[in-house]
Amino acid sequence: MDETEFNFECGSCGAKAKLPQMFLGCYRPCPQCGRKGLVGAGTPGTPASGPATPASAAPGPAEPAPQSAPPPQRARVIPHKINHAGIVSLWLIVGGWALSIGLGLVVNSLAGESPLAKLVSSAIQAVLAIVAGLMILAGFVLCIVSLAQHAAQPGAYMRGKSHAWGALGLSICSFCIIAIGFAFAGDRLKAAWNRNPVQSVAAPPTSATAAPAAWVVADRAPAPEKLKPDVEMADLNFRFSVPSKAWSSENPREIMSGAIAGFSRKKPDIFFSIAVNTGEMTEEITTERFARKDLDEFMAASGPFNVLKQEGYEVNGCRGIATVIETESGSAPLYFAFWTFVNKGFMYKMVTVAAGNRVKREAFETESMAVFMGFRLIDPDYAPGGKSGG
């Protein structure tokens, strides 16, 4: 350590001392009176300009060295305020999503099955969506205002900046989700605009001597009949086998009222059921009339729908009518495919159903026609009551 010494003069008693350089710029007590003074200064707070003049050589009292101004210090801003705009913006965006999703689910669960109840539920959900959108927009504006305030007065706010950044991120995500939703809604509206109106049941040939070209025969070879079919009911004169292992057995009552067998598959998600009716059968009931009656009952239960496709469809020698229908469940399309067939007093109906937001129409039609191919009659001449025709 450099031991070069500097003079120290007490401003109170005038005592002088020599102190090491290590104390330069520090306040030290006077060895005589104990009052503190600045090392290197003739008086407290006054820096020394050079070595002190010896007392014997000084003609009079030593003049104090001129004082230098202390270096300017940067004013420190102490945060003492809360930026309410940032906090409110975050709560507005979170509240908008909670209002839209939470209350929307509650309203949807409480809605009935009648058309009026569905209309009221849709109207309430639309109002909730508009209010939620306005809340998200207001939150976005407030978070921009909050960030601008923080930029104009850095360090002036204790809270609110992190809330504003969080609100900005959520609002951007919200706008992206809304844009994607509008894009899908636009596609659905365009598809609905181009959809065909409700069509009447086509009239396939009614006799076995009609031109075969009027009937659509399955464009695939029927799968070889299994030694043990998945469903076989001799009293109802039919057996059925699923086309692949992708299909698994289900409770038929959960798929369709009156069904006696049910299956389902994944990717695409489709449900299948079979129903057989032998009651209210008269000689006038034909496959065509049964198809018409089935569509009338479907319309009475579900309301308006669109017939996308209807044609005579022959399945393993059984000339039935295949109908593909599109309707709606809430805001999602719902697809149904029916195959109806009447033979010797038995009215057979196979039904597939799938939600349009989980399966495409083309895939649904392909899988439906494939699963219909699993139907076979045990005895084409068998009639209710166990009698076979001659």
What features would you describe in this structure?
The longest helix has 38 residues, at 115-152. Helix content is 33%, strand content 25%. The protein has helices spanning 84-110, 115-152, 161-194, 287-302, 361-372, and strands at 5-9, 16-20, 27-29, 36-38, 81-82, 157-159, 216-217, 231-233, 238-240, 248-250, 261-265, 270-277, 306-315, 318-329, 332-343, 346-355, 375-377, 382-383, 387-388. A hairpin with a 2-residue loop joins strand 14 (318-329) and strand 15 (332-343). It has 390 residues and is α+β, with helices and mostly antiparallel strands.
Record keyword descriptors for this entry.
eight-stranded mixed β-sheet; alpha+beta; 19 strands; disordered N terminus; about 400 residues; about 35% helix; three-stranded antiparallel β-sheet
What's the arrangement of secondary structure elements?
Blueprint: E1 5-9, E2 16-20, E3 27-29, E4 36-38, E5 81-82, H1 84-110, H2 115-152, E6 157-159, H3 161-194, E7 216-217, E8 231-233, E9 238-240, E10 248-250, E11 261-265, E12 270-277, H4 287-302, E13 306-315, E14 318-329, E15 332-343, E16 346-355, H5 361-372, E17 375-377, E18 382-383, E19 387-388
Parallel strand pairs: 5-6, 7-13
Antiparallel strand pairs: 1-2, 3-4, 8-9, 9-17, 10-11, 11-12, 12-16, 13-14, 14-15, 15-16, 18-19
Helix pairs in contact: 1-2, 1-3, 2-3
